[in-house]
Description:
Distance between the termini: 40 Å
CATH architecture: 3-Layer(aba) Sandwich
Strand order of the largest sheet: 1-3-2-6-11-9-10
Number of strands: 11
CATH topology: Aminopeptidase
Amino acid sequence: MRANPPIVLNAGGRLPGLIAVDHAGRSIPPGLGDLGLAPAWQDSHYFCDLGVAELAQELAGLIDVPIVLCDVSRLVIDVNRWVDDPRSIPVALENTPITANAALSCAEREARQEAVFWPYHQVLGTIWERQMARHARPFFFALHSCTRVFEGVHRPWDGGTIWHDDDTLSRHLLHHLGTEEGLVLGDNQPYSGRNGVYTVDWHSYGTGLPACGFEVTNDLLETGPDRARWACRLAGALTAAIATGVAA
């Protein structure tokens, strides 16, 4: 399997930060076909974080930090899971088997890691090291989207932070975004980072630098104006983090 390097926007970004987009794409490497799934699955939140790639493109024009996107579907391999996590390469969706992922040999699993997982994190790590060398206190921000209804449960949150090591950036984002009337935000909701989240933890845990993930509910990213609105919100909040000294 050939290497699938990530997409990098604002590669030479001047501001003190880095944005990771783990689940940006629907791509499937050659040789894996459609993973044995019906085409309709490609339009589901299982295949990728819906709307997040377009949101990242909008953000790139508003805040001059590097943005790294994994364009390969999370169903090939999830770059936000530890490689020994059983969910790293899922074998079923809602009781629907993913036939291309069933009974993989160790060599086949390692091939996906070498083609997708490690190239993504190597690029992220290289850029993050550079940002840490250039700046006193850069932020690490992982951008995601999630579904409004999951396993029959309605989620009230329009957006939410995910953090583990330190809540400094989370608190800033919630305070800044929370000034907008009607916006419902979650602190470690709808997903908690307390038990660890691979990308944020692997690159920032123990550094003392501001870091967190952020989920935007994907029904708020369905149109161009929707995504532009959220790009403005997030760019404003992250720029304010720099202006107020949360990041520097």
